[in-house]
Please model this.
Amino acid sequence: MMCPLVVRTRASTRASLLSLYPTSCTHETAHAAPCFVPPSAKDLIQRLLVVKPKDRYSAQQVLDHPWVAAGTSDGKTHDISRALLEMKKFNAKRKFRAGIRVAKVISTLQASVKVRLSADTMVG
Model:
């Protein structure tokens, strides 16, 4: 099954996200979190998005935060197994594509060396 978040446009990304979390949102401001994000998650995000590092939550504080430690404010726990699987697939594809790019660069370099060597032998 393909991840519903793998899309090509911003509008389709938003539509995919909203389809995952049915909601009765009527509006959202540019800087407000989407209405389907639980208040406890919003609180954690606000504590992480702090400019001064000394005022920002540490890793231990994040782990101790109620949203991470006990689940969302509505009592649901977080099942991240599917997300981890999708991240592993994404990383595998990313590494494969990087390998293809390296192979292309090596092939291009080898071709340019051959051209240069053949030009040098013709001149010499």
Notes: The chain has three domains: 1-36, 37-78, 86-124. The chain has five helices and no strands.
